[in-house]
Amino acid sequence: MTADIDEKCIRKDTADELVMALAEAKADAIIERLQAGPQLAEDSCPTLLVTAHTVVVYKGVVREKPISKEEPRKFIKDYSGSHGAVVGSVFVTNLATGTKKGEWERAEIEEGITLNVAGGLMLEHPLTFPFVEAVIGDTDTVMGLSKPLTEKLMAEVL
User: Fold this and answer.
1) Alpha-carbon torsion 74, 75, 77, 81, what sign?
2) What PANTHER family does the database record attribute to this sequence (predicted)?
3) Dist CA 65 CA 71 (whole Å)
4) What is the DSSP letter of 6?
5) Do residues 86 and 106 touch, judged by C-beta distance below 8 A?
6) pTM for the structure as a whole
7) 77-86 burial, b if ≥16 CB within 10 A, otherwise e?
8) Rounded to the nearest 5°, which phi and psi values hold at 110?
9) Which tens digits make up the pLDDT trace of 52-103?
10) How far apart are CA 116 and CA 34, in angstroms?
11) DSSP line for 41-77
């Protein structure tokens, strides 16, 4: 389910604050939609809502979703010969109890020849992967949702 929020209306001073605020705003919007619609069936297992958000930080500037066709090309060109950091958040809500937990993680990608995947290309793409020398941090964070962090937060809200 998509949250359908205006992400540009939510601004914070740092990337970690921004990804946390946006992941929580997505959770709040989805919960509001769920409460307005048919109720979730009671089950012996709790229902968990997982939301997330990811940005790239390049030379101290937060980069979000591109706003034009030209912008991703510029991003990729900028990354050539340099590197960016991916900052991602995970926010887990136990819909039965209302318990919420969220955290953020950072991963840096250092490129090999001319390509870098953060904010521009998929890490796992066969044309990109050969040029990645190292991922410092969790690879899942680069891809947009850290599995270890998600599992940790799910266990905490249960």
Assistant:
1) positive
2) 7-METHYL-GTP PYROPHOSPHATASE (PTHR43213:SF4), BIFUNCTIONAL DTTP/UTP PYROPHOSPHATASE/METHYLTRANSFERASE PROTEIN-RELATED (PTHR43213)
3) 9
4) -
5) yes
6) 0.75
7) ebbeeebbbb
8) -110, 130
9) 999 989 889 998 888 888 887 888 778 776 777 889 999 999 999 999 999 9
10) 39
11) PP-SSPPEEEEEEEEEEETTEEE-S-SSSHHHHHHHH
Minimal CA–CA distance to 49: which of 103, 9, 14, 100? 100
Residue 112 in tokens = 């090999």
Using an 8 Å Cβ cutoff, are 102 and 149 in contact?
no
Whether 96 contacts 47, CB under 8 Å: yes
CB atoms within 10 A of CB 44: 4
Compute the distance between CA of residue 134 and CA of residue 141 in angstroms, rounded to an integer.
Answer: 14
Copy the structure tokens of residue 30. Answer: 């989805």
CB under 8 Å to 93, separation ≥6 — which residues?
27, 31, 48, 49, 51, 99, 100, 157
90 three-state secondary structure: strand
**Overall residue count recorded for the chain in this entry:** 158
Contact (Cβ atoms closer than 8 angstroms) between residue 137 and residue 105: yes
